[in-house]
Structure formats: C-alpha cells, structure tokens
Design brief:
- By secondary structure, this protein is α/β, with parallel strands linked by helices.
- The protein has 2 domains: 113 residues, P-loop containing nucleotide triphosphate hydrolases (Rossmann fold); 103 residues, P-loop containing nucleotide triphosphate hydrolases (Rossmann fold, 3-Layer(aba) Sandwich), CATH 3.40.50.
- The protein contains 7 helices and 10 strands.
- α6 packs across α7.
C-alpha cells in the first residue's frame, strides 16, 4: 500500500453543479515529491483542499498512512499561494501558530520556531511584522509555519506563483535544501503548480490533469539526478514531454 492514496475523487461546485474533478486517482510512496499540473480552472487547488480535509469530496477518498482523511489534521500542513499570514502578529508569532496544538512548553515553542525561521533564512526578522516583508520573505514565513510542526503531509498551492522569477528561483532552492533535513522532511509532499519547469525541477512524479471535468491525463516520473540543471538535455526532454501531453 502506498503512503498516500487519492482514490477516485470527484467534486462539483454546490451552487452551479459544475463538475470539476471526475474520478481523480494517484498514489505516492514515502518521501516522494508530487506535483499536480493542469489547465487553469481544472480544479487543482480544489483537489489540494480536499486532500487537506478542508473540502469534502462528492465521491472517493483520501488515505494517508492507512487512515482516511475526512477533516483537517495536525499531521497535514498547507502552504497558501497568498501567504495567509496574520498581519497583527510578528513573524515569530505567525510561525508559532504551527505549533499551537503541540503539547510543549512556550520555551520549546519559541526555540523550535526560531530554528525554523533560521533555516528559511529569516534571521533578524523574527520580531518584524508581515507588512514589512517582501513577497518572497512572506512566503518563507509561511513555509516556516507549515514545516515547524514536522507534518506527515505537506501541501503547497502554487507557493511561488505570486513571486517574481528571481525570487521564486531562490526560494525553490531554499525549499529543496530545507527538505533535505530529515528532522523537518515530511513523508509526502504534494505541490500544485502551473509552471512545468518548476514541477520538473522539484518533483519525483508529476500528475497531469485535463480540462474540467478533470481526469488524470498522465502520470509522469521524473528520474533526473538531483540537483537538476534546467539547461541539461534530460531536463529539456522532460519539459518537452509534458508540453506535448498538454497539447494532446
């Protein structure tokens, strides 16, 4: 049995009745980085929220480590596209939220949060507020909050799409480095992306969805040695393969 199983997930918007997901199935083994890509509006973000237990599917089920996910869980963390930081809290306080349900002392909560901020290269910004940060730094705080609780499953909804390419590239490299640390490495990572090159750079496996009502068009393995060079022949071949699937 795979560590994460997405089984025949279907969903229609309640008000319009429009079906966006039509029997989506895929699986992930432990320590696999999965990306979900597909046309705009095909339900990628909705699927991710179903996996997080934030939305209930009309059909199908999500199984994580042998247990069915029906509601939000402390073992699942979510990184939002729009950062979702609380502006009245400092960066350190925002990260501490990720440990709110943990039975630890305030001293332990602060120490762990400071360590995670340091890993995300935010030394010196612990007491600053989100409105003083650039977009890239805000997303670093969001990532720190998501990772500080050592989640079993990390879900990321287009985490780099609101950033300029230079900032996004820097943050992608930071995330890859942070995820090498076995202390903070989730057992499964699923990222929604609209960027094919990004998906090839970061993923072990890519789920390609069709237009809505979305089905899985193809599951593509990315067996390129890390770190991945975007200019290499193997990388460009994989990118071209994915573009050709979109064109079908």
């Amino acid at each position: 049995m795979a560590f994460l199983e997405v089984e025949k997930i279907s969903f229609a918007y309640p008000k319009s009745g429009v079906t966006v997901l039509n029997g989506i199935s895929f699986s992930a083994n432990e320590l696999e980085f999965i990306s979900i890509i597909g046309p705009s509006g095909c339900g990628k973000s909705t699927l991710l929220r179903i996996m997080a237990g934030l939305i209930r599917a009309d059909g199908g089920k999500i199984i994580l480590d042998g247990k069915r996910i029906k509601e939000p869980s402390n073992s699942i963390s979510f990184v939002f596209q729009d950062f979702a930081l609380l502006p009245w809290l400092s960066n350190l306080e925002n990260v501490k939220i990720g440990l709110a349900s943990k039975p630890i002392t305030e001293e332990e909560r602060e120490k762990t949060s400071l360590e995670m901020l340091s890993k995300l290269e935010l030394n010196g910004f612990e007491d600053a507020y989100p409105n003083l940060l650039s977009g890239g730094m805000k997303q670093r705080v969001g990532l720190a909050r998501a990772l500080v609780s050592n989640p079993v499953l990390l879900l990321m909804d287009e985490p780099f799409s609101s950033l300029d390419e230079l900032t996004a590239n820097s943050l992608r490299k930071t995330v890859i480095e942070v995820l090498k640390d076995k202390k903070t490495l989730p057992k499964s990572i699923v990222m929604v992306s609209h960027n094919i090159e990004e998906a090839v750079e970061m993923s072990d496996k890519i789920i390609v969805l069709s237009n809505k009502p979305a089905v899985v068009k193809k599951i593509v393995s990315v067996d390129i040695k890390r770190p991945r060079d975007r200019g290499s022949r193997d990388f460009r071949r994989k990118v071209d393969e994915l573009y050709s699937i979109f064109a079908e």
